[in-house]
Amino acid sequence: xxxxxxxxxxSARIAGINPRSRAFIANNPEDNxxxxxxxxxxxxxxxxxxxxxxxDDALAFVELARVPIVxxxxxxxxxVGFTYLADQQVACLAARNGDIMLFSKERFDNGEEAxxxxxxxxxGIEAMAWxxxxxxxxxxxxxxxxxxxxxxxxxxxxFPLHVEEQGEGVQHSVGWGRKETQFHGSAGKQAxxxxxxxxxxxxxxxxxxNARIAWRGDGSFFVVSDIDQQKSARVARIYNREGILQNTSxxxxxxxxxxxxxxxxxxxxxxxxxxxxxxxxFLERNGLRxxxxxxxxxxxxxxxxxxxxxxSTMLAVWLEAENAAGKRQKTVQLWTANNxxxxxxxxxxxxxxxxxxxxxxDVESPLxxxxxxxxxxxxxxxxxxxxxxxxxxxEDNAGYVAVIxxxxxxSDNEPSAHDETYRRVERGARIVLATQLKPNLVLQMPxxxxxxxxxxxxxxxRIREDVKALDYRPAFIACRRxxxxxxxxxxxxxxxxxxxxxxxxEQVPEVDHLNLFLSNLKNxxxxxxxxxxxxxxxxxxxxxxxxxxxxxxxxxxxxxxxxRDQYIQSILxxxxxxxxxxxxxxxxxxxxxxxxxxxxAEEALAYTIFLCxxxxxxxxxxxMYNFSLVLMVAQQAxxxxxxxxxxxxxxQKLEKFYQRFRIDDYLKRxxxxxxxxxxxxxxxxxxxxxxxxxxxxxxxxxxxYANNPEKKNVILNAYAEHLADTSAYDESAIVYQLCNEMExxxxxxxxxGSWREAFAMANQxxxxxxxxQGLAYDLMEYLxxxxxxxxxAIVAVDYAKDVEEAVDCLLRGSHWQEAIRVSHTQNRSDLxxxxxxxxxxxxxxxxxxxxxxxxxxxxKQKDRLKELREKKPEPTAVLPHDESLDNxxxxxxxxxxxxxxxxxxxxxxxxxxxxxVSSKASRKSSRVRRREQRKKERGKKGTIYEEEYLVKSxxxxxxxxxxxxxxxxxxxxxxxxxxxxxxxxxxxxxxAQILVEFKEAIxxxxxxxxxxxxxxxxxxxxxxxxxxxxxxxxxxxxxxxxLQILS
Length: 1047
What we know:
CATH superfamily of the domain at 12-168 and 199-351: YVTN repeat-like/Quinoprotein amine dehydrogenase
Protein name: Elongator complex protein 1
Number of helices: 33
Oligomer: single chain
CATH architecture of the domain at 12-168 and 199-351: 7 Propeller
Keywords: Elongation factor, Protein biosynthesis
Region (Disordered): 912-939
Shape: flat
CATH topology of the domain at 12-168 and 199-351: Methylamine Dehydrogenase, Chain H
Organism: Lichtheimia corymbifera JMRC:FSU:9682
Domain ELP1 TPR: 658-821
Radius of gyration: 38 Å
């Protein structure tokens, strides 16, 4: 019964939002300030703005910093995540190119640079999400690895996203709630054995192919959704806080990219696009499907994002669909649930086809939303719930309470949702008479006086009759008197009206009346919106494309024939009312009138200024390069002469095309300004180059000078320098070649590390051997810094002619056999003794040391684990809460209302009598949680976390040993031929013993953790013991790595 009402709204302007890309919003709940990050619409930059710092306007947004988008392929999608970090008091932004940036208001206030780049991921970033306590951040890299880091950006773990394993949670399933144990009706138990055929699964056509991350409200789990190429479907994988895979979602055909985890923890939300409908689907933490609801939209739409509010009561669905006008528009729907039924409480649609390009719930106020629109506006909406009940007496004497779910329900046999045959009148009033010729009704009030009213139904019926009879004057007067939209005169019968426009002007000749009619025109059919006939249903769009322009042109043609001077105001109205306004034609008409009568032109101009913005009219006149017209507009608009006269006087002194350049630059028509500057003469070429660089107009300049090779080469040179400055060295080298700057092209290839192209260019330029060797050493250093040792060796041999350096590079990269091959093929067998053998012995020494360390660590941790598990636990003084109660399905998802302080409890359906333990855990301070996490990571001896730490450490040793088999084989195959038999045998026997010990220990080490609680266990230890961790056994794959000669 509770409906959503808007309590308050605040708005501010954000200049430069790109309507084709998303704006990201992050709010600071401490001082109610808001960060906004977006891509600029006029340049390739990421801009970050903040409000609340301007002294004169707290709502105004001030730019903190802007970051260039170097790689243009990321334009429109350069930002992947944006979050405010309360502890550090900074906003964190992750860019798709891999950069992680922090923006600080404090540094900005101190006059320092607000931007700080704290690190970069070489392979790029596809998604970012901070944990609710902001102690951890999870990234999905460009190579589809999941990277988990601390708040100081120290790496905790990194692992591949797409794996065959289903997760640890699968091992502990006892069948409750599974398909095999459910009732299948007449199909019988055989239905449980049917496997889902995933080979026919496809991706949704609306999937954006990007990864998504979402955390559970208590920060103990997170989910990652991405397209698994092997399965050709999108899969959601659930991990615990340590990054260990717990569960994988059940196969869902056409599962889409949207993703969020309900803060209360019981549901993960996504969407599924089916051929006949579009569902919002829910998954449980174990990955199983748990209900859905269907969106109202059927076709021609796609989902952008979904988002839960802070207390899990409201779900925002951000989508793009066709509006009533047939245009695609981005809007937001607000849904809530009660007793498993979903109600759409609000549908946020902005006027003028504005898109919602940014949406974010407030982190603390559950019913507060932050919105950014394509119209460069920021809105903050504060909602409240209210019961809306009827207050009037109807014919059926019923009491109504509005329950909003986004649909208006009526009986199927009703002709209309609204009954026009009933109208309310004042209590005690009596109907005396309904007149026949006029749409009037006479009422006698309780006081005895008579009143005449014009019911809307009477008026509309009369207007329709007059329009049909071509009596336009009485219809027009009735509309004007009763405030009926004048569009009905056309919309009632468009073809009839269009054919009789001369008759309409004949019957309504007053200029003011014609101006009123023209100014009220809009591209909408009012017979489908405001004045739909009773019982008449029409599903077609109410948007009428081109209606206003069509009527304006027809009126203008007729009025020009009747007399331009007589109807000049109405003719100007047709120009101004056109979509878009044709102000240039209107000003051209005024210029023509001025030739015959200055006074009439000034009078008409005053009327035009009344219709539209004077500054816009002034700029249009200036853009026509007509100074007399500009002066007339400025004078009629009563602009201060001190503002415009000096500027106009300065312009009049300039040469024609340079004058136009200055005008276009003033009007920010930069491309047109550059074209005029090219026509201003060669003496302005240097200025043209600077202007081109300032506004990045290299392509426009190249078009203008396409037939001038000399100047074209200068522009290409400048363009290449620009590319080099933005680190696009490969492309810079290509452009340098176009302008025959081969040396600069060579340098760009060198900076890019493109050694093949660089040496080809050097040979083409006929560089000396010394120069080529110097280039080779530069490129070798670059390749070694990038750990590309095999390529560095090729450069050393082929171009530096330095075989020793090549062998060193190969030895550093552990390419033993290649180092031997190069030594012999280059006739440097002496390097075998001086470089290869010492390098091999160093490799043996390092391997021997690593194996000793592994063995020592393994035995110490294994013995400690055995001691820990054999120790008898003390009696438990505190009975921990049973977490299995959290998953009882008999409770409704909306059984009780939650405040913003209980949104991070582990399950929304927990009984109130059992909620005390979880509420204590949810109120833990951030400092306590960080302390417990550090304890867990250290695994200090004697703590509850020690067993888990030891098991994880042994698992890492097993995984490391598996990957070392190829390395050991490679080393052994080189040690033996050089006579290091004892050393090779030592390595083989030691490593074989380690593998045997590791495999024998796996069954005893990797068992469910016991987590014994002491008598005086802390609350944190009790909470940790509620969900004992089960660590997956490592898989040690055997390969043929031994040498038989050493056995």
